[in-house]
Structure formats: structure tokens, C-alpha cells
């Protein structure tokens, strides 16, 4: 379900044309059942789009969705005491496909060194981490807050709403389910107009900035600190524009259908502390870990709050991928957040310095996120930490990596990314909205033109599909 591919829009447009045409044709006979038809049509449309990704993606999604619903249906027949015990059984069942497809090879082959050949080439179904966490939250909220189980059709609309099912945002029951229960195909010009603005911005982020910057990520040098920092910079910017781009398109599609989704990114690269960064980066996942792991462990008021925070970020790293680098990345952020909290209560620094330190930590940590080889990761980390490695010869080597034309293009796209971030910062300062100025009509026209003229010729899949 790649929003940057024309195939997605062709399938979506054809599907919408069919279901709306059939709706118009059957309207006189549907009467009071028109709402049921709309929900069935939305559900089928989402399943068809998942099938367009792969059979495996569709089947695993259905397996997790059905296990969750049937499991809750069975648990809710029990008394309250037994419900909580059975929830402990249901959650592992929900997580079982995620464990097999994403972590079995790492645990049994990389860690335990069992050499199970059949696990080495197991592909990860698109979106499994996202919709699995959404189902786990749904189960916990349903039992924890003693909510009734919705009708199966409403639940499927909630579980499989196609704009957000494969890469978030990870929506909660109280936010999305009531909207699904009242869903209907309606012509809302204001909602469609607002939604199209988000779609234009998201596609500009993805196709113009993210995909072009991806072409300049090399990731091979272990001895040149300037090359490593440039790789960190291009990877970090590509990751943001790629993932935020998907989230903004999902948000826009939801608005067009009359559904409000969570704004998953709040201009995180404008943050002046690491605490603020994690309030702005992948908001729905951060809130998920806060509500379902950090707070149940005792949160920040516990005497063990440092352990709780570190554990949450290590688990967050594992959520992103099976590998030592992801664990190290999570541990780095957890440790830095502990230091941020301890030192932030005693000293304050000017905002520009705070922003610089935050970006240094965030982009430095991306090294552990993209470098999957532990030996090369250690070698690169040593190079970055060695003052003697920062030589004029190393800088000249980096400068000579590309021909003059490619260097100019790279600088132009880095400049365009910097300008975009500056506009985000002004939007936060003046409007208290992360993307307020970028959504102005005349700016959107410019973004459309830039996207058409500068979109990368190589279409990259959304990077978070791998997670």
C-alpha cells in the first residue's frame, strides 16, 4: 500500500468508483441499510488494498484481527477475575505472528546460533508491527475500561481502515472506533479540501525530499567521520520525510473520508530537548509505550523510574527491528533521556544550544538504527569519537565522493530540507501548529510544482514498511 505508487491510486480510484456506483444503483433498495453497505464497502476496499500488497499481508492481518475479536468475545463471557488472567493468554496469541515473522530468526539463529535454515528467509508482512500493537491496545482497553465488544463489522472497519493500517498512526479504541461506528460515504467539500492539503504535503515530503535524499545515502565508510555524519544526516532526514510523508498522506485520506486520525509527527527536528523530540516523533507509538508499558511499570514516580525508562526505549528499539543495532539505538535514547531529565531540572541552556545538542544526539543515534553489522557499527562509532579522524584529508575525500553536478544537487536538496524545517519552526512559533504555513494554499501550489518537477525517478518503498 505504497501511496507513492500510481498503482495504489488506480486501485483506490477504481474501488471507490465501483462501490459508490453500486451504492447509487442500489440506493432505492437499501434505505435504512445504507450505513451497513458503506461499512462493508469500506472494509472490502481495505482488504483489497492489503491483497494488492501481498496474500501474506492480507492473511496475517486477518489472523491477528480474528484472534483478537474471538478471543475478546470468549473472555467477556467470564467473570472479571478470570478476564484479566485470560488477557495474559490472549496477548501472546496476538503477538505470535509478529514474533515468528520478525524476531524468530534473530533469536534462534543470531542469538542462540541454532542454525534453523527455514527462518533465514522469512519475509515480514507489511505493517505487522503497527496493526498488532493496535489490536493489543484494543484488547487491553476493552477489558481494562469494561467496554462492550463492538459489532464485528464496526471492529473490522476500525482494525483495517486502509490509510493507517500498514504504517500507522496506531489508533486507539476511543479515538477511531466511534468514528467507524458512524461511518458513511458523504460528500464533504471542506473535509476533502483539507485532506488534499495533507496529501500534497505528504507526497512532497516523500517523493521530493525523502526519495531524493535516499539516493545520497552510502553507508560504507568506516574511517571517514565526515562521510559517516553525512550518512547519518541523509538517513535521518530521509527517515523523517519518508515516514512523516506516509503519515500525512494517511491523515489526508482519512480526512477525505470524514475520519480524523492522529497527527503522528509534530515537527520533531524543531525540538530543543530530547524529551520534546520524543513528544513530537512518532506520537502514536510513544503514547502506546507510555500508556501500556511505562505507566504500568510505575512511570516517572517510581523509585525505579530510570530502569523503567531505559526498558521502554530498549523495547522500542526492538519494536523497530530484530538486531543488536536497534537495541543499542533504544538504549542510547533511554540513557540520554535519563540524563536529560536529571540535568534539565538543574540547568537550562539557551534554545539554540538545546536544539543543537538534541540534533547531535538524534542524528548520531541513527547510526545504530541503519548499521546492522555490529562490527562495522563499532568501527564507525570509534571513528566518530576520535578527534584525530577529523582531518582535512578526510573532508577532501568526502568532497570528492561525487562529481560536481551531484554535489550541487545534494546541496540543493539539503537546502530545500533546511528551508522546509525553517518553515515548520516558524509555524510552531507563530501558529502553534507544526505544518501551518506549509498548508497555506499558495504554498501547496508550490509544493505540487516542486513534486512534479523534482520527484525522484526511483520509487522507494516507504521505509517503515520494513518495521
**Main sheet overview:** none
**Strand pairing plus helix content: what structural class?**
mainly alpha
| Span of the ends, CA to CA | 14 Å
Taken together, the total number of domains comes to: 2
Estimate percent helicity: over 70%
Rg computed from alpha carbons, rounded to a whole number of angstroms: 23 Å
Strand content: under 5%
Cα shape:
globular
Residue runs with pLDDT of under 50 for 5 or more positions? none
Helices, by number, come to 18
Average residue-wise pLDDT: 91
Strands, count: 0
Would you list the SSEs in sequence order as H and E?
HHHHHHHHHHHHHHHHHH
Reconstruct the topology from this structure.
Blueprint lengths: L5 H25 L3 H20 L1 H21 L4 H32 L16 H17 L7 H8 L13 H9 L7 H26 L10 H32 L17 H7 L2 H12 L10 H16 L3 H21 L6 H20 L3 H12 L6 H8 L4 H28 L9 H14 L13
Helix pairs in contact: 1-2, 2-3, 2-6, 3-4, 3-5, 4-5, 6-7, 8-9, 8-18, 9-14, 11-12, 12-13, 13-14
Model description:
The protein has 467 residues and is mostly helical. The chain folds into 2 domains: 6-185, no CATH class; 190-466, no CATH class. It has helices at residues 6-30, 34-53, 55-75, 80-111, 128-144, 152-159, 173-181, 189-214, 225-256, 274-280, 283-294, 305-320, 324-344, 351-370, 374-385, 392-399, 404-431, 441-454. Helix 2 packs across helix 3, helix 3 packs parallel to helix 5 and helix 6 crosses helix 7 (173-181). The longest helix has 32 residues, at 80-111. It is globular. The two termini are 14 Å apart. The relative contact order is 0.10. The model has no long low-confidence stretch (mean pLDDT 91).
Amino acid at each position: 500500500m505504497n501511496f507513492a505508487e500510481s498503482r495504489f491510486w488506480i486501485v483506490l480510484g477504481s474501488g471507490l468508483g465501483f462501490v459508490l456506483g453500486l451504492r447509487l444503483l442500489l440506493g432505492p433498495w437499501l434505505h435504512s441499510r445504507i450505513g451497513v453497505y458503506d461499512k462493508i464497502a469500506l472494509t472490502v476496499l481495505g482488504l483489497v488494498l492489503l491483497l494488492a500488497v501481498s496474500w501474506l499481508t492480507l492473511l496475517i492481518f486477518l489472523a491477528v484481527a480474528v484472534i483478537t475479536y474471538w478471543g475478546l468475545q470468549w473472555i467477556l463471557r467470564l467473570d472479571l477475575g478470570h478476564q484479566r488472567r485470560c488477557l495474559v493468554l490472549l496477548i501472546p496469541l496476538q503477538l505470535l505472528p509478529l514474533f515468528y515473522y520478525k524476531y524468530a530468526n534473530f533469536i534462534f539463529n543470531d542469538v542462540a546460533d541454532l542454525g534453523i535454515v527455514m527462518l533465514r528467509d522469512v519475509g515480514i508482512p507489511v505493517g505487522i508491527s503497527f496493526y498488532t500493537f493496535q489490536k493489543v491496545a484494543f484488547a487491553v482497553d476493552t477489558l481494562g475500561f469494561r467496554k462492550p465488544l463492538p459489532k464485528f463489522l464496526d471492529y473490522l472497519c476500525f482494525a483495517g481502515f486502509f490509510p493507517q493500517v500498514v504504517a500507522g498512526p496506531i489508533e486507539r479504541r476511543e479515538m477511531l472506533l466511534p468514528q467507524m461506528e458512524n461511518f458513511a460515504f458523504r460528500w464533504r467539500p471542506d473535509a476533502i479540501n483539507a485532506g488534499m492539503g495533507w496529501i500534497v504535503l505528504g507526497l512532497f515530503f516523500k517523493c521530493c525530499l525523502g526519495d531524493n535524499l535516499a539516493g545520497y545515502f552510502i553507508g560504507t565508510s568506516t574511517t571517514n567521520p565526515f562521510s559517516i555524519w553525512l550518512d547519518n544526516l541523509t538517513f535521518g532526514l530521509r527517515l523523517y520525510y519518508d515516514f512523516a510523508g506516509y503519515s500525512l498522506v494517511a491523515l489526508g485520506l482519512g480526512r477525505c473520508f470524514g475520519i480524523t486520525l492522529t497527527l503522528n509527527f509534530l515537527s520533531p527536528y524543531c525540538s530543543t530537548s530530547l524529551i520534546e523530540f520524543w513528544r513530537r516523533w512518532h506520537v502514536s507509538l510513544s503514547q502506546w509505550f507510555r500508556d501500556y508499558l511505562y505507566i504500568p511499570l510505575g512511570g516517572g514516580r517510581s523509585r525505579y523510574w530510570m530502569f523503567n525508562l531505559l526498558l521502554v526505549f530498549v523495547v522500542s528499539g526492538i519494536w523497530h527491528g530484530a538486531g543488536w543495532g536497534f537495541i543499542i539505538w533504544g538504549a542510547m535514547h533511554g540513557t540520554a533521556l535519563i540524563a536529560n531529565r536529571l540535568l534539565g531540572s538543574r540547568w537550562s541552556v539557551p534554545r539554540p544550544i538545546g536544539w543543537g545538542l538534541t540534533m547531535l544526539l538524534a542524528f548520531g543515534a541513527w547510526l545504530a538504527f541503519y548499521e546492522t553489522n555490529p562490527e562495522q557499527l563499532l568501527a564507525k562509532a570509534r571513528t566518530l569519537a576520535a578527534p584525530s579522524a577529523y582531518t582535512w584529508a578526510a573532508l577532501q575525500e568526502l568532497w570528492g565522493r561525487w562529481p560536481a553536478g551531484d554535489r550541487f544537487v545534494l546541496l540543493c536538496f539539503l537546502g530545500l530540507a533546511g528551508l522546509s524545517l525553517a518553515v515548520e519552526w516558524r509555524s510552531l512559533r507563530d501558529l502553534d501548529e507544526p505544518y501551518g504555513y506549509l498548508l497555506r494554499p499558495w504554498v501547496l501550489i508550490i509544493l505540487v510544482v516542486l513534486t512534479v518537477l523534482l520527484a525522484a525517478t526511483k520509487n522507494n518503498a516507504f521505509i517503515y514498511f520494513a518495521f
